[in-house]
Amino acid sequence: MNVVMPETLNKATRGENLLREDILSLLSLGKEEDSLLFKLADQVRYQYVGDEVHLRGIIEFSNYCVKNCLYCGLRRDNQKLDRYRLSESEIIKTGNQAAKLGLKTIVLQSGEDPFYTGEMLAQIIARLKAETGVAVTVSVGDRSKKDYRLMKQAGADRYLLKHETTDANLFSRLRPGTTFAGRIKRLYWLKELGFQVGAGNMVGLPGQTCETLADDILLLRELDVEMAGIGPFIPHHQTPLKNCVGGEVKTTLKVLAITRLVLPLTHLPATTALASIHPQGRQMALQCGANVVMPNVTPVKYRERYQIYPNKICLTEETTESVANISNIIRQLGRGVAQDYGHSPKYKEGCE
Ligand code: SAM
Ligand code: SF4
After folding, report:
1. Looking at residue 86, what is its pLDDT?
2. Which pLDDT tens digit goes with each residue over 308-318?
3. Domains along the chain?
4. For residue 72, how far is its CA from the centre of ligand 1 (angstroms)?
């Protein structure tokens, strides 16, 4: 059957600015037209950021969290979770192993854990950079501007702070004690301090509408982010949202593809969350606009305990194996693994 190209896709093909109503119309495309959207996002990805896929090794260095987000398995009130922290030397050792496997970026991620002061984090970042030569992305949630500054001065290149949802009421309901305005304020601090900034949202949160998703994409454009993490919400059995439905693969791919059209130069990961709800999740995302994969390089003995959502993949796989598997997936798609730092194309290559 011949599928007619919807006018909004023609508009995107011509490189015209997509308006909120255009994004809404793309979100509601039918099954046949979806494939046209995905194909176009894949072409735009190729045209703007090329065929290479950037690998970012993620070290989940602490699962302690002072926050109580309703969606997350690491939330403070989850008493069933066995908590752990990696020492500075364990983090450096893990970073070294990842660098030896050829990974050029290390993402330091944790729950919101004040045990690690700004100074401690700065020291870890400085050592990682000096001893391994990697680029460093930090993702440790809400902190003071002073802490962000310390991290930047220590050499951190990027910061990932997902905005989670643009619906301010939903945001405060899902993240008790915090506000959407507070999150946005921090994203602007991070920009001002010179980080390459990543935001992003979950797809399929309870109470989320197509309008919210359109606003999520528009916010990413407004912030002019260097990266955007877009993944499905996956209900966790030890959280208040355990009976919710969770995000769909198709909707997540659509949000990802439209984000590629709206932000052609932005790094977009094929998220672990998507790969955790569909065996071909990574492959599909890489063909719908994604150009980044984040292999888990956390020491295997801790991985089980960083279950922000259930059935997370790669819990038992050794790092060498994960990196080899991901590299194979990339090659099977006819793509290559990038050998550079993978800084935003908006910035000059080179790692200070
Ligand atoms: N604590 C930091 C923060 O919240 O920014 C960083 C770590 S947090 C575990 C990283 C991301 O996990 C969050 O930004 C959120 O989008 C995602 N996440 C948490 N619970 C999830 C769930 N149930 N399903 C999908 N993603 C989830
Ligand atoms: Fe903590 Fe981040 Fe999970 Fe919220 S999403 S409970 S801040 S780890």
Report:
1. 98
2. 999 998 899 99
3. 36-331 (3.20.20.70)
4. 6
CA atoms in the 13 A half-sphere facing the CB of 239: 24
Q: Write the pLDDT tens digit of every residue in 269-285.
A: 999 999 999 999 999 99
Measured at the CA of 187, the angle between CA 182 and CA 191, to 5 degrees, comes to 145
Taking a C-beta distance cutoff of 8 angstroms, is the pair 46, 335 a contact? no
Q: Which two tokens stand for residue 334?
A: 């006819």
Measured from CB, residues less than 6 Å from any atom of ligand 1 are: 71-72, 74, 109, 111-112, 139, 141, 161-162, 164, 202, 231, 233-234, 236, 273, 308-309
pLDDT of residue 111 exceeding 90, the answer is yes
- Residue 204 contacts by C-beta under 8 Å, 6 or more apart in sequence? 232, 233, 245, 246, 247, 248, 251, 252
Decide if 82 contacts 112 (C-beta within 8 A). Answer: no
To 5 degrees, how large is the angle CA 68–CA 70–CA 76?
A: 25
CA 129 to chain centroid: 21
Does the pLDDT at position 350 exceed 50?
Answer: no
Q: Please name the residue that has the structure tokens 């894949």.
A: 42
Note the pLDDT tens digit of each residue in 226-280.
999 999 999 999 999 999 999 999 999 999 999 999 999 999 999 999 999 999 9
